[in-house]
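Hi there,

I know you've been waiting on this one. I reran it after we fixed the sequence typo, so this is the corrected version. Both the input and the resulting structure follow.
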Amino acid sequence: MPLRLARFRTDERGNLAIMFGLSLLPVMGLTGAAIDYSQATTLRTRLQAATDATALRLCQLPRTTTASEIQTKALAWMKSYTGSDVVTLPAADFKVTDDPRTIEMKSVMPSPAYFGKIYNMIGSTPYINAIPVGASARCAAPVPQDFEIALVLDTTGSMDGTDKKGISKIVSLRKAAKDFVDFVADNPAFSAQTRIALVPFASSVAVEPTTLTNAVWLDKDAKSPIHWNNFESDKAYFNSRFEIFDSLKNKYTDWKWAGCFESLPYPLNATDSGFDPARNESYYVPMLAPDEPGDGSAGSVTTKYKSGSVTRQTSSNSYLDDSTSKSYCKPDPDDAVSAEKRACKYANPTGASNRPASGLNVANGPNYGCTSQPLTRLTTDFTGLKAKIDTLYSRGATNIQEGLIWGWRTLSPVSVFGDGVAYAKPNSRKVLILMTDGENTWNPTSQSTSINKSVYSSFGYYVNADGTKAADYGKPTNRFPQGTANPLDADDARAAMDKLTSTTCANITNMGTPIEVFTIGFSVDNDKIDQKGIDLLAGCASKPTTTHAFIANDSTALLNVFRQIATSIGALRLTQ
């Protein structure tokens, strides 16, 4: 027995097993710690992203949202972002201040500790079941700025089309534009002094005629060199186009002036230059579509009139009979130019035919081509503005430049309205958002049987009755930049309008304090904007174009683009 005990005391064969067993716990603890803390690190990354996103979203809540409502929404959004109900927001670490709004928050979430009991056994950590993971964020809305924003919106006939979901483009536009206005109204980044203008456009832009009757820049005395294009300047009958409108509205009330203007001569039509009474070309001429040769049949007609080698004249907007029984309007004309230019036929209109606008059909008469609702000047009445957006309808051709220049004029401190604040005013920003679903369009008519070669537009005709042309560079009636070819067909007309548009955009870009320009092409699958049109919009947008030029392919995309623009100009930031 003593011998056995002695041998037992000196036997080392079991020591290795005991030592291995004793060392296993630390090894397992270290391995488990690596696994558990790796999972905790991954969770913290996710938690930080969720906390950042929640903080930014909270700073975009309406100004009227209370601190308690903010905290409730914060917890709901954190649970949504993390996909977990165990995330918490310690009340002591949740702080909200205003003017400007800032939000500080901390989030906590447990990360499972699968090896916690081992840590506890070796006394290395108090955490048995979970490791608490935390994240924090602080967002601050910018100091509220005064914004002046022009919404320049295409309301042409093609906006009556639908996207792939069958939703009308004009309906989508109304929704997206109103959503934009609501965002601006509620977002704390926009001061209470922020104003928005609405500029619907088609082939022209209208102002509210009843509010501008006394504006000094209206060409009431026929001073502009383009005032009598296509009309006899015979003051025995009328002193201005306004007087012709006054005579015509006695025949039909909707033949009163609808508020559109002819484009100013170039280069005044590509800048926001203010009205100068010493410069006759700076007066604004009311857009008055001449009664084209014919008997007033209210549609496209072929007449008996001759013009040079043309033996029969075709007209698209004859709304009066050129022949009258009035002695002062004799003899009857025998050629198309005389029939179109004569002023006496407007003095006591006869044979008049009124075809009101219906659906996509443009009304004939003196307001032919003036199809858009009047623009709304800069306003803080966002409720009234949304009501105006709700009335937008689709009719007419596309003149992107006319919408662009009138949008600029609404923002300008020096143009005809003079509504905008100074360009360099501190803490004030000017933004122009241009949306179109098409390309510049000025439709031709029969080249062989029309003296004008085109329909009437804000540029007049391809060829006016007096022989002047739209791109007679160097003449007072010219409307386009140097080097522009006189339009002969739709392609020529588009090229001229595109050049005038890009020139206008360049003039905005080259200002000392440029207006920030966003462009949106609404290019749905069944009515796409071609690459030339997309390039024109991209070239007009402020740089970088990746953040200022957008293409929307359906109603949902259009809504998202307007929201993205609204968010970017009222940008929020994380400060921690």
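Quick highlight: The longest strand covers residues 102-112.

Best,
R. S.
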